[in-house]
Amino acid sequence: MCTTKMLARSARRLSPMAAKRPLTQLGVPNKRPATSANCSTTTMVAENPFKEEFEKYRDHLNEMNDKRERLVKASRDVTQNSKKVIFQVHRIGKHNQQTVLNQAEKDIEGVTTQHVSRITKELQGSDNDSWKLRRAYSPGMQEYVEAATVLEFCKTGTLLTLADLNNRLTKLSDPSTRPFKINLSDYLLGIGDLTGELMRLAISRVADGEVEVANTICNFVRDLYKDLSLVAPIMDDNYEMNKKMETMLQSLVKIENACYAVRVRGSEYITDAQGEQYRYTLALDEEG
Amino acid sequence: MEKQFEEFKQQLEDSGNVRERLRIIVADLDSVTRVMQADLLQVHYSSRSPEILKKAKSHIGKLKELYGQLAEVIKGTPGQYYRYHDHWRNQTNTVVFLIVYLNWLETGNLLSYAETQDTLGLNPDEFGLDIEDYLIGLCNVSSELPRYVVNQVTIGDYDCPKRVSKFLSDLYAAFRILNLRNDFLRKRFDGMKYDLKKVEEVLYDVKIRKLDSSGSAIETKQEAS
């Protein structure tokens, strides 16, 4: 038994085919018989006694690393394209609402089917991998949540819930497996960034003369901040979230200042011939 | 909107409770490994006596029990092993080190991943051993060996360096089969060559003075180069 095994090994080494085969297939992990120890003592060149075991570990690690690498790539694409959706939403103005939002809707659908689907394909059916590799795809999911919620707010004025968002993603997973679900932390972190976008939106709408929009946004962000402040301290990894909460409060203050400016100087602002110039400085003040 | 956040709050509080339960178990795990480690320290001051190993081994039952408790908690939150992994990660590295080291002291063999998992009574479907945790444990074994060799030679076991050097160079070669990422494991592995160097220096000292049983000068040259 010993010799046949050795022959098989050397044949594999000599075969020109073997050289072309990918590394992972060379060391086919087979059972580790007790005789292998005797084997190595009789061979001239001592085989590494741990080789077979470590080849198994290597295959396992390779598989995990490849998966992680694919997720990182997909996550970057999701981030990049979600940012484009957010930019598209910011192009919103007084008269082009419907066209801008329709385009944004199309764009985010593209992100979902082309890029988010790559993440769900890797992770569907395995909660373990979803947790283990979370760092690899978390940035992309956060940006995606941000894009989806900002768009939903512009369309309906409400917060897109995690459950609704997950329902949209269900179609991407194979129905026979447990569908991939967005991690609660990623959702909350994405919502944390939403405020910054809403602040920009509020300022630009005020500058555009739509003052009541600023009030709507202000109230929405206040509610959101209140709700998040109850949840943020007990989150899994709350360091990042606490930082976002600070930024969020700053954004909220900026929106409130804009509402104040409109309230106090509003009458001048809408009718005054100097309005143009005033609006310009207001927007700069608040956004800078 | 509020309803959703109520649910989130509930979910996060539940997970906080899970963490609390894990923390208590892991604190016990910590104290068992400390005692075990203290017991094993004695191998440095005395020649390998079966009593020391027996005493150290007597703690394995307790370890099994504690891992059983961890598994029980994780069973309540299926699929979330890696969510809470950080709680027991460091301790598990130490536990792997202790078990593999103990086994090596006893038999001179390397306990495989599967065997280590079995020794701890872990069921991979419920609560397995992370392979990287196992490999980090092996790196810990490696960093223990230079000191062991030095002390064994001091006690008078001149054949020990050869044994250890063979084992460690095999282990080092085996690790080189792996494609490691730039992470903690990689950093630990990078330290292994210094352990090997130190052990080889001891081996050289012993051989050049022909203190070991083989006493072959030719072989000495090879080892030293």
UniProtKB/TrEMBL annotation, chain A:
GO terms for molecular function: sequence-specific DNA binding. The lineage of its organism: Eukaryota, Viridiplantae, Streptophyta, Embryophyta, Tracheophyta. It is found in: Cytoplasm; Nucleus. Signal peptide: none annotated. Its main location: cytoplasm. It comes from the Eukaryota. This is Translin-associated protein X. GO terms for cellular component: cytoplasm; nucleus. The keyword Mitochondrion does not apply. Belongs to the translin family. SUPFAM superfamilies: Translin. It holds the Pfam family Translin. Keywords: Coiled coil, Cytoplasm, Nucleus. InterPro entries: Translin_C, Translin_fam, Translin_N, Translin_sf.
UniProtKB/TrEMBL annotation, chain B:
Keywords: Cytoplasm, DNA-binding, Endonuclease, Hydrolase, Nuclease, Nucleus, RNA-binding. One of its GO terms (molecular function) is single-stranded DNA binding. It is found in: Cytoplasm; Nucleus. Its main location: cytoplasm. Belongs to the translin family. Ring-shaped heterooctamer of six TSN and two TSNAX subunits, DNA/RNA binding occurs inside the ring. This is Translin. It comes from Picea sitchensis (Sitka spruce).
